[in-house]
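User
Please review the sequence:
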Amino acid sequence: NQASASYYNVEASAKTLEKQIRIIENNVALLINEISHTIERSEFRECKNPESGLSKKISLAALANRPDVKVAEYELSRNFYGVNIARSALYPSIKLGGSIGWTNNLGVISNPGSLLMTALGSLTQPIFNRGINMANLKIAKAQYEQAMISFQKTLLNAGNEVNNALIECQNSTDKQLFRKNQVIANQQALENSMELMKYTSSTYLEVLIAQNALLQSKLLQVADWFEGIQGRINLYKALGGGTE
């Protein structure tokens, strides 16, 4: 009865795994714009370590691919140029040309004094509006500082996500090493149990227990491997599309 119960438990577990496989295959087919179909896969023993080739150190410049970092960067640039524009509005667009004298976009100014004294002259408006322009400059500087803080915060958040993904990958690598040894130990325990059943008074129940322990360790090994793959995916997303 115990053997039968163990058998049916394994059969039920297999059906659960088959259901998960079908669901994942349907999701993958939808992702690549195809009808649902069976996807050929390699054996688990043929799968490579998902951490192979993974660098443990990633440059901060790699975060520039992230959309949120790009938005913060563009916002910072926009406010930087906004400060320069606000500063340039403090001075009239009159140039000093040495022997040429006072000039503007229209040419040489014959009487710059009268022009500077004309309140309605477009070139002198920044002088009379200096108070407004100074206020605009202060606002632009404040917005630039705010954009700088936002950019720094975005970088910190992005770096934290990358660090978490790296920790997930590295932790999975360490777990897989221990899990591999666990599978080997359970395999040896199963072989020993079968030998004991042949030559001693040990019962087949001990063999079933050893088989169950081996099966559970293999399932955990697959789960750890999947966790490593998921960590690589999370790292790819955290880097805004991966790095070369």
Observations:
- Residues 94-103, 105-109, 115-124 have pLDDT under 50 and may be disordered.
- The chain has six helices and three strands.
- Helices lie at 2-31, 67-88, 112-117, 125-128, 130-199, 204-238.
